[in-house]
Amino acid sequence: MKINLAKSAGFCFGVRKAITTALETAKTKDPVFMLGDIVHNEEVVRQIQNAGIKKINSLRRSKNKTLLIRAHGCSKKTLKRALKLGYRIIDATCPMVKEIHRIACKLENGGNQVIIIGDKRHDEVQGIVGQLKNPVIVIDYPRNIPLGKIKKIARAGIVVQSTQKLDNVLEILETLRKHIPRIAFHNTICNPTRMKQDEIKAMPLENSVMIIIGSKTSANTKRIFEISKSLNKKSYWVSSAKEIKKMWLNNAESVGVTAGASTPESSIKEVIAKLKAIGPA
User: Fold this and answer.
1) What topology does CATH give the domain 13-94?
2) Is the pLDDT at 168 greater than 80, yes or no?
3) Mean pLDDT to the nearest integer, 102-116
């Protein structure tokens, strides 16, 4: 059984930078806090906690405390409140997400109704919404387009959650173009996500079985799995090597392996080792 590992499997630049920033910040004398998890991966979260960074649910008046902004970013309101309460800010927001913030603000300042194509409850999307002064329309799937609101818009500026599936975005955009006279569209799906999606459109057709590694809370891993499953029914989403079942690999000539952008290298290595133990590569 041949094992084929995707070139893009695992950490993207933004996640790697955020984790490096967090671990360096943890070495300082002052207590370090974070509103939520740095990325959507349980193993990485444990690593950050073991380094001494504490997760909190709300901000309190503080002295000599540091607030680490997660890879997904945060709202302007949260940032201002943290500074007012006395926190030192270390910003580990992914640079590509920061670029989406910049574009969204520019679109709003230019008189556009800002529309975000993305998951409404996702931390990144909430952070983008939190950069803007006016109400924002967030659309996750074509079936959920609020046509009543859309038909009233004369000018729209559109940005995309960095980990969205391109096919989903294009389908939504096609409908919006039919109802909004003027649209400024910015495809802000990040390059690592595009690379992962390009690979996952080919690998399921080239391998008997696909293994996708990542947390069940990871949006970009979910997208990869959805694409893979649509092309190869023998696609399996696992958080760790422990979840792999030998029966999945019965009569498999090859198995393709990829991983979400927040999946650490250690998880990938464990999966590869498990596959080799089941059937020699």
Assistant:
1) Rossmann fold (3.40.50)
2) yes
3) 98
The yes-or-no answer on residue 171 being catalytic is: no
pLDDT at 281: 47
Read off the pLDDT of each residue in 120-140 and give the average, rounded to a whole number.
Answer: 97
Take residue 124 and report the two structure tokens written for it: 């990144």
> How many angstroms separate the CA atoms of 150 and 153, rounded?
5
Hey, what amino acid is at 230? S
Please indicate, yes or no, whether the overall pTM of this predicted structure exceeds 0.85: yes
Average pLDDT value for residue range 164-191: 96
Catalytic residue from among 108, 124, 253, 270: 124
Measured N-to-C along each axis, helices 95-109 and 13-26 cross at an angle, to the nearest 10 degrees, of 110
Q: How far apart are CA 267 and CA 136, in angstroms?
A: 37
CATH of 96-185, one of 3.30.1050.10, 3.40.1010.20, 3.90.1200.10, 3.30.70.270: 3.40.1010.20
Q: Is 49 exposed, middle or buried (0-12, 13-18, 19+ CB in 10 A)?
A: middle
**For residue range 211-233, what is the model confidence (pLDDT) as tens digits?**
999 999 998 899 999 999 999 99
- Fold annotation for 2-10+191-278: Cobalt-precorrin-4 Transmethylase; domain 1 (3.40.1010)
